[in-house]
What does this fold into?
Amino acid sequence: MQSSKPKRPSLAFVLGKSGAYAVLIVGLIGTLLPFFYIIVSSLKTPAELRQTPPDFFSKTPSLDNYTTILKDKDIPIAQNLFNSIFVSISRVVITLFTSSYAGYIFAKYHFKGKNLAFGIILIQIMIPFQVVMIPNYLLVVKLGLIDSLWALIIPAFIDAYGIFMMKQFIEAMPAELMDAARIDGASEFGIYSRIVLPQMGPPLASLGIFTFMATWNDYLWPLIVLTSPEKRTIPLLVVWFQTAHVSNQGLVLAASILTLLPIFIVYIFLQRWIVDQATQSAFK
Amino acid sequence: MAFNTLFKKDIVVDSGKLTAKQRRFAYTSLTPILLYMGVFTLFPIVWAVVMSFFSYSPIREGSGFLGLGGANPFIKIDNYIELFTGTSKPAEVFRLALKNTFMFTALVLPLNLLITLPLAVILESIGERFKTLFRAIYFLPTISSSVALVIIWSYMYAPGWGLLSIMFKAVGLVPPKSWLQDPSLVYFGVPLAMICVVIAHVWQDFGYNLVIFVAALQSIPKTLREAARVDGANAWQEFWLVVVPLLRRTVLLTSVLTVISSLQVFVIFQLLTRGGPKNQTQTLLLSIYENAFKFANNLGLSAAMSMILFIIILILTVIQFRILRTEWEY
It folds into this structure.
């Protein structure tokens, strides 16, 4: 209901509003300060980093720590970056394919044993990783995949959560389109690849982004199956740095920021969407 | 319309043949997927369960299938008995880890809700543009690499020159000599190192619950709140009598999810405190990992530990599905 004369905001209202913003800004500082502190610290010289009490800002900020870790021949950082990118992209591509393909079958086909098959897939969601961690490690040893990047990719072909998500999306697609294609002589796989897949941009993009972030940040499983320095992914490199370069913490900081960077760049462009997707997925 | 019915008729005529073809397609496509699931999900689960009843070490050449048997004997429920009553080092550490894991969860959940619920209510009340901005920034730690976040917090908690020590000194307080390594610093029965880990974890994780609560608040129909206003409720009453009851299911569900994820926190314990000082931050998952991959003496015992964690999580998951299944309408 609109009031006829413009109402001046009451004092309580103004106080309430500014109080609200004050709380939000305190929260904001609390969230960003730790990030900000290591970013400015990564620009310090080794001497400045050792100084007690330290200055918040470096007097001679430089990118030396970054150039050092990128140039040092003893640190296979290019290789480690490649490993992380290779594993992340492989897993995204494979997950998108298996999830949409299986999701399509579960959504649009009716056959005996469908519920049982879907139940088997859902078991994966119910089982926490640490339960299968030990047998999966022994399995990877038996398959001869220890210390190979394939150990990060092969056991992750199927993502039950992805199948579940895609199935829900495809169920909402009208069957008429698929039937029409069938009459035009399209094969069942052709219906998937030419009718279903082109309509799946948004859910595939969100599954892809979440798979990428999860793989990029993954630590425990790579820690278990990878051993040699040139096989490490970026998080393992950072941890190794932390123990190997106690004397030069600037390198550790620079490496951590390089780990965060790709995800942050993606996030800057897609933040609204990522947050919305994360909110929705919590209730499925 | 006519066009449509024409198609429908065609399908009915051909239906038998089509479904046979479709069924064949469905079976041939799903077979490899299910076989794969069998190898990489079902088989490992069964393996883990079976292994937990054996004294198994991969170094010993066993006699039976998967090396279970012979030098790796079947010992019935001895692993479980050992974990709960035994006096060996792993068993004692396990019981401590169980206690610590529960303590960690019991601290994380209320702290998380205490921050996220009021923050969500405030965030929901402000303008759309700022809301999106704040939400995006609060969410930032949840998408960041845990390893990098641990490095960040090791800088916050660094003794003497860490940011927290500096801030303590700035306001005239005396910071502890060591935030993470002094086992004698215990407040209300909670070791300081544990408090530090809880804070770092909640900082990393609160964005999730926050955005969920904001979304839940937004989904409450405006008409309900307006109706309360019309009936003479003030803002406080409107919040407690309208908003809170409608949020109940969301808060319950989010709490269960928070508990499940808190039980499985690993990186921060392994890297920030390494379970120390004196096992004060030793947790279940860290024990499983260390027993299996660092000491590697009895994987059967580690498997038994993972089964215990699994049973706890399973119970919580059942509760979660129960809440999800309850019908809810405004």
About this structure: DSSP finds twelve helices and two strands in chain B.
